[in-house]
């Protein structure tokens, strides 16, 4: 027994565990030190898509959703060309809600004991990507699958996240999203107040006065732009991810 414990200690020091079978690598993922095959990844993705088909009829009959929103509900995880990574892409509208979503992802990862610590990235100030990968295997493990299913259980609408289908055509999809949003605003009618955070409302006037003071000290004229009651530069407000 003492010899076995000593062997286990040295194996763990070297980054491996004792193999139960002779000639087999010891692997904490139970995969003999090898990543899942492309066939296994394809089967997993097919299973996810089949699960969505059960929900498809319910989604199509939901009158509260636009056609664009319905199509977004049918998007799930995708794999890279080598089937060594899983990823999901989202368009985000509010960076503070996005940080809450990221916290929930890592909380799920910890709570489910997968502890994969998924890769996350933000690009173009509006696209968020989650990537699942097991570095030790240089590919995917069953833990990645487990975490992927757990993340799918999150209600993305709570974080104002819109799933995107194709990493190479995000701009086209975002244009469709903007058209869909404009259609909703027209249905609601004029006078709809823009969703702004309480924090921003509270400090709007303060920030404006500070900006005026800085301009005055620098000897610049106040153009009247970016006042507390709204900015004529509508495009800058439209793309603000902090409101």
What report would you give on this structure?
- 47% of the residues lie in helices and 10% in strands.
- It has helices at residues 2-13, 38-60, 67-73, 95-111, 142-152, 170-188, 198-217, 234-238, and strands at residues 78-79, 86-92, 119-123, 127-132, 161-164.
- It has eight helices and five strands.
- It has 243 residues and is of the alpha+beta class.
- The radius of gyration is 24 Å and the shape is globular.
- Strand 1 and strand 2 form a beta hairpin.
- Strands 1, 2, 3, 4 and 5 form a five-stranded antiparallel sheet that branches.
- The N and C termini lie far apart (62 Å).
- The chain folds into three domains: 1-34, no CATH class; 38-187, Transcriptional coactivator/pterin dehydratase (Gyrase A, domain 2, 2-Layer Sandwich); 198-238, no CATH class.
Basic shape: globular
Mean pLDDT equals 79
The count of domains is 3
- How many helices does DSSP assign? 8
- CATH topology annotation of the largest domain: Gyrase A, domain 2
| pLDDT < 50 runs, ≥5 residues | 1-19
Report, as a whole number of angstroms, the end-to-end distance. Answer: 62 Å
Query: CATH homologous superfamily name of the largest domain?
Result: Transcriptional coactivator/pterin dehydratase
Compute the CA-based radius of gyration.
Answer: 24 Å
Largest sheet: 5 strands, antiparallel
The chain-level structural class is alpha+beta
- Total beta strand runs: 5
Which CATH C-level class of the largest domain is it? Answer: Alpha Beta
Strand composition percent: 5-15%
Work out the helicity level: 40-55%
Going by CATH, the architecture of the largest domain would be 2-Layer Sandwich
């Amino acid at each position: 027994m003492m010899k076995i414990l000593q062997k286990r200690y040295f194996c763990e020091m070297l980054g491996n565990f004792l193999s139960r079978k002779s000639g087999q690598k010891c692997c904490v993922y139970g995969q003999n030190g090898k990543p899942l095959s492309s066939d296994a990844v394809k089967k997993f993705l097919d299973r996810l898509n089949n699960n969505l088909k059960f929900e498809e009829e319910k989604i199509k009959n939901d009158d509260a959703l636009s056609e664009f929103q319905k199509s977004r509900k049918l998007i799930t995880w995708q794999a890279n060309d080598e089937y060594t990574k899983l990823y999901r892409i989202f368009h985000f509208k509010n960076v503070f809600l996005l940080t809450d979503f990221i916290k929930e992802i890592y909380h799920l990862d910890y709570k489910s004991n997968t502890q994969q610590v998924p890769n996350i990235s933000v690009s173009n100030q509006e696209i968020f990507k989650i990537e699942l990968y097991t570095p030790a295997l240089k590919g995917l493990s069953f833990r990645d699958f487990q975490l992927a299913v757990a993340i799918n259980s999150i209600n993305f609408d709570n974080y104002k996240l819109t799933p995107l289908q194709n990493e190479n055509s995000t701009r086209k999809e975002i244009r469709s999203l903007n058209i869909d949003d404009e259609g909703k605003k027209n249905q609601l009618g004029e006078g709809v107040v823009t969703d702004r955070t309480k924090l921003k409302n509270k400090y709007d006037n303060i920030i404006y006065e500070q900006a005026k003071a800085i301009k005055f000290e620098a000897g610049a004229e106040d153009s009247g732009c970016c006042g507390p009651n709204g900015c004529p530069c509508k495009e800058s407000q439209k793309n603000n991810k902090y409101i």
